[in-house]
Amino acid sequence: MTESESLPTTSASGEVVRREPRQAALDGLRDFQDLILTRLGDLGLPTEDVLVALNQRHALLQSTEHALAALDDEQRARSTYIAKMIMAGSVGLFDAALNYLWDETVIELRKRVIGYDLSYFYAVAETSQSRRNELKSAEDLVKLDDAKLLSGARQIGLISDVGYRQIDHIRFMRNYASAAHPNQVTLSGLQLADWLETCIREVITLPHNNVVAEIKKLLVNVQAARLDNNYLAQAAVFFKGLPGEQADTLARGLFGVYTTVGGEPHALDNIRELWPKLWPYVSEDTRFWAGTRLARFLANADQAQAVLARQLIDLVQGGSYLPQEIKVTELAEALEELLNVHLAWDNFYNEPRVARRLAELVGQHGSVPDNLVRQYVKTLVTVFLTNGHGEAKAANPIYLDLIGRFDPEQASIALRAFTDAEISSQLQRSLSRKKWDELLNMIDVKITSRPERELLQAVREFPGTPDKLRLDSGIKRYLAALPN
């Protein structure tokens, strides 16, 4: 029957009349409403503001057919909560209808997660380690709140960014305008129909993109068997083409899978192989996130997980991304060890190892905790000036690199290093004097204030040997003009 055809009915007098389809539908809804409201009244229950207006219900029913057009027969057959949504909407219970729509959306999201990779999803979606430990199987998905389910699905690419924003709005409305909680919000039929279409388009029927499919394949292979060299080479190429956010999400997921105690040895081996290949494409925020996760493990006395986290951080020389509380301790230890090996008889052999560790902790930006800056600069100047007998050839390029990362404050401290009695004593040796001149040339561009530049000029023009600088009255006047 088409829209233009009329529906036959019988009037109160027995006369056959014809009604337009829209009017027939409204009459049917009104008859049902009258029956229900009469029964509620007979029971002494409220009848005002219980059901949504008839025209809004009709608008919903008219629009649902268009919204459902994207579902195939199999998808429709399993959409129980969509059927309940339409039923609730037809009788005027829009708040309940919204609840059912959200139930259908959550069920579909969970199905997608289960079909992807649960351990990876949990590692991305749940940031609390204590709660993360409770999430292992598909049955545990109910323990994850809807906001984290939705956010995790977006992060691993199961829904799009645009879809996430739209679905998250529906989640908000479900919390504040549905039957889930008492409220005074009024919903319209067109709103509900639009939200139904959104959930179908952005969740139920949204196809996986190629990147998501490739990541899923990678995760399956990581946990299936030991990866061969050809596959690892292909993975490295794949990482290079990853969008930045996907690289971050993959890194966080692999980090979470690796730090879950009880992982299969071959899976851990695979992640160790992949981690250095992925690291160059991971953002600074995610790198610091890894360091923070290690700190949390330590703070919570999760020693086994802390050991695993540290393995990945050390694997990529990520010491500079450790939180300050860890970094201060380790950097202080590295400085002390570097000075000790420098003064030992086999320093040429041992210095490079400790210098590399120091460089790892400092990082490419030369970041040093404030309370260690002076110790750091003094130690670095000391080892750079050598013991006077020869350079540690393998360590010297590291020292040059670290001095090259000095900021103006650190350069100023290095300029005044001659005031230290131990460093001044070093400057009695010819090789150390040569290295001192090299140091001054390196920090020249970093010295910015007028008093410091005047001191630098005076040091360079000093007629005596640099070990005598600290005793010269003229140099002392320049030093007195500097801020502490």
What is the molecular shape? Answer: elongated
Helix content: 55-70%
How many separate helices?
A: 25
Task: Compute the average pLDDT.
Answer: 85
Q: Structural class of the secondary structure composition?
A: mainly alpha
Order of helices and strands: EEHHHHHHHHHHHHHHHHHHHHHHHHH
> Looking at CATH, which topology of the largest domain would you report?
Serine Threonine Protein Phosphatase 5, Tetratricopeptide repeat
Tally of strands: 2
CATH class of the largest domain: Mainly Alpha
The low-pLDDT segments are: 1-7
Largest sheet: 2 strands, antiparallel
Write structural notes for this entry.
This protein is mainly alpha-helical and 484 residues long. The chain folds into four domains: 1-47, no CATH class; 51-204, no CATH class; 210-316, no CATH class; 325-480, Serine Threonine Protein Phosphatase 5, Tetratricopeptide repeat, CATH 1.25.40. 66% of the residues lie in helices and 2% in strands. It has helices at 21-42, 54-68, 73-77, 80-90, 94-116, 118-125, 129-132, 146-155, 161-177, 189-204, 210-224, 229-240, 244-258, 265-278, 284-299, 303-315, 324-343, 347-362, 373-384, 396-404, 408-415, 421-426, 430-443, 450-461, 473-480, and strands at residues 7-10, 16-19. The protein has a two-stranded antiparallel sheet with strand order 1-2. A hairpin with a 5-residue loop joins strand 1 (7-10) and strand 2. Helix 4 (80-90) packs antiparallel against helix 5, helix 15 runs antiparallel to helix 16 (303-315) and helix 19 (373-384) packs across helix 21. It is elongated and about 110 Å long.
